[in-house]
Amino acid sequence: MTVESSFSIENSKYDDDGRIKRTGTCMTASAHIVTAVIGSGVLSLAWAVAQLGWIAGSAVLMLFSIITYFTACLLSDCYRYPDPVHGTRNHTYIDAVKSILGGYQHKLCGLAQYTNLVGCTIGYTLTAAISIVAIKKSNCFHKYGHEADCDSANYPYMAIFGIFQIFLSQIPDFHELSWLSIVAAVMSFGYASIGISLSIAKIAEKGHHWETSLTGLVVGVDITSSKKVWNTFQALGNIAFAYAFSIVIVEIQDTLKSSPPEHKTMRKASLIGISITTFFYALCGILGYAAFGNDAPGNFLTGFGFYEPFWLVDIGNLFIVIHLVGAYQVFAQPIFSLMENWGCEKWPQSKLMTKEYNIRIPLVGMWRMNMFRLIWRTLYVIITTLIAILLPFFNSIVGLIGALSFFPLTVYFPTEMYLTRTKTPKYSSIWIGMKLLSVFCLIVSLVAAVGSIQGIISELTIYKPFG
């Protein structure tokens, strides 16, 4: 073999940025998106629609799916800059903001992004435990009746979930998670389908009748006027943030192979992922509201909107747990990479940071072990699990974090980068349209933040450590 051909073979292993050649496709990116977007919150959409009613509930679901897809397309064009096909790669969301907007804005982006990512991993730990407890309760109710005391503590199951995540967190790179995201996406289809099927069965029950209305819960009948306002705020937030996957969109795009151009593949993947998500969201929200009316529970699998068939409820909650195992990794991997890249830049000569050991694991294959990666990722999972255990009402806090990060990450930075990249004239129709979109989403974020704060205050009044 000649030197030239040897160099050509070796060079073919790497992309234009010197990294190992990416192998991601539209299918794997779509799976990552579905995994990131559809969380167990899909099953709380019946409650959200109940607060808003048929008209506003349906309209808000569609509105935020359109906004999310639109801003995802804007963001996908920022992966390479200045040219979306041949420009320099931006491996992370922060890199894109830094190269296009410059100044200090990438620091604000990083603060919003990584605060949200950390919050999501803690929230997923808690939510997975709630679903595991729901399986235990379901079997208890089936055996002893619906009035039985089947309460169980969440924190042992958070610890089990955390231990499992310690092992999965040792997967070195985001692009090696494709199989996990595909499994998680299948699980999300599974439990969403179970929720939809159980809703249809409940609607078809003989004598079934639940009060619904065009405007949701009726003030003075179902709810007080002040509670209606708070619940409406929270419902808007739930729907808006259920779609928010912008925090990992650039990282997902960084897994795609170069041909066809990454931004074109990402646009297709975003359309597929968000279309699938919207379809399931609409069915879960609308059919769930039809099934339960104004009495819709917060989550009709973990909140026991359904008791029977108990085995199907168990399967639905098991699917939620498996899905959250994958979703945790999709959101944690950018955090892992940030710290590891910083460590390698800070101490490039350190073997602790850079040296990798190939260890063969039976039935699994070769595992690339790095000591810093092993220590840091293990510590991160332990700390987030402990926070979830100590603050079991953390979902409301995560809602607040989501409210504060939705506007900058999903709308502000994508629209500002578009205006800068395309050199859009000030006060042109496109410029005005982008600014109006930003203002609207800022108002939604502020409203949702107020609702989340009120929820935190309410939960603090009944807080019991290790409950």
TrEMBL record:
Keyword Transmembrane: yes
GO cellular component, one term: endomembrane system
GO BP term, pick one: auxin-activated signaling pathway
Pfam families with a match to the protein in the record: Aa_trans
UniProt keyword terms in alphabetical order: Amino-acid transport, Auxin signaling pathway, Cell membrane, Membrane, Symport, Transmembrane, Transmembrane helix, Transport
One Gene Ontology MF term: symporter activity
InterPro entries: AA_transpt_TM (IPR013057)
Domain Amino acid transporter transmembrane: 23-457
Keyword 4Fe-4S: no
Bilayer-crossing regions: 29-48, 54-75, 114-135, 155-172, 179-201, 232-250, 271-290, 310-331, 374-391, 397-415, 436-457
Compartment list: Cell membrane; Endomembrane system
Topology of this chain in the membrane: Multi-pass membrane protein
Coiled coil (residue ranges): none
Family recorded in the similarity comment: Belongs to the amino acid/polyamine transporter 2 family. Amino acid/auxin permease (AAAP) (TC 2.A.18.2) subfamily. Belongs to the amino acid/polyamine transporter 2 family. Amino acid/auxin permease (AAAP) (TC 2.A.18.1) subfamily.
General function of this protein: Carrier protein involved in proton-driven auxin influx. Mediates the formation of auxin gradient from developing leaves (site of auxin biosynthesis) to tips by contributing to the loading of auxin in vascular tissues and facilitating acropetal (base to tip) auxin transport within inner tissues of the root apex, and basipetal (tip to base) auxin transport within outer tissues of the root apex. May be involved in lateral roots and nodules formation.
The protein's name: Amino acid transporter transmembrane domain-containing protein
